[in-house]
């Protein structure tokens, strides 16, 4: 299974900056074909930039996949002010959508039940749902991380979840944007727990990707991405510079060569 390196731009970039970042990523991939072949990249710009970025990607042969940072739980069009449906995203070239990021769970009070409805809507529109889970600092200090993550998985994953339509992103809340990273051993332990939890509950649990996210940078990516059951990374801050984003992907190759 190829590793997936997913760049969550969050609420960053104006129109010009988004186009420039996309162009830099395209140039970087063009200049490094072994990297483009060995690693799967995906970018998640703010929704408003999706149409122009989709147009840029259309003209490129070697390119990252495109995704959104959220979608509506409602599959059908209707009176849902401010919402964007999964099928609208698919219409602008999106193949993936991030759901249940901690900045939405904790920042906006989004529940696992809502996230499950969103994942269902995403999958119905043919999108891969990247479902985020992760414990807070207090939950980790209380040793409750496994319990918290398992409960989030239980309530957030729709019954149709499987390797083809779902990716899990484990993102400890205390490691997001803080510069603190979980140790490789901690990441390996919780990813193993997630893999075990998936078994018997989803389709093709062995090949369902589990990403790690939380202050992943070029200098720690090699160790994190080589841990067992770590099938890629969800990158925030470091995805806003093309060279850092691609360097995280390159860490996968260096690890293989070592
Ligand atoms: P970070 O964000 O890499 O800036 O910690 C990760 C994420 O929130 O997806």
Coarse shape:
globular
| Topology pattern, helix = H, strand = E | EHHEHEHEHHEHHEHEHEH
Bound molecule types: 2-phosphoglycolic acid
- Count the DSSP helices: 11
Q: Kindly report the name of the CATH homologous superfamily.
A: Aldolase class I
- The amount of helix comes to 40-55%
Oligomer: single chain
How would you state the average pLDDT, rounded?
Answer: 96
- CA gyration radius, whole angstroms: 17 Å
Structure description:
With 258 residues, this protein is α/β, with parallel strands linked by helices. The protein has a single domain (3-257), classed as TIM Barrel (Alpha-Beta Barrel). It contains eleven helices and eight strands. Helix 10 (218-225) links the parallel strand 7 (210-213) and strand 8. The radius of gyration is 17 Å and the shape is globular. 2-phosphoglycolic acid binds at residues 8, 171, 176-177, 213-216, 234-238. Residues 8, 171, 176-177, 213-216, 234-238 line the site of 2-phosphoglycolic acid.
Annotation keywords:
single chain, 258 residues, alpha/beta, TIM Barrel, eight-stranded parallel beta barrel, 43% helix, binds 2-phosphoglycolic acid
How would you summarize the topology of this molecule?
Elements: E1 4-8, H1 15-30, H2 33-38, E2 40-44, H3 50-58, E3 65-68, H4 86-91, E4 96-99, H5 102-105, H6 112-124, E5 128-133, H7 137-141, H8 145-156, E6 166-170, H9 184-198, E7 210-213, H10 218-225, E8 232-235, H11 242-257
Parallel strand pairs: 1-2, 1-8, 2-3, 3-4, 4-5, 5-6, 6-7, 7-8
Helix pairs in contact: 1-3, 1-11, 6-8, 8-9, 10-11
Residues 8, 171, 176-177, 213-216, 234-238 line the site of 2-phosphoglycolic acid.
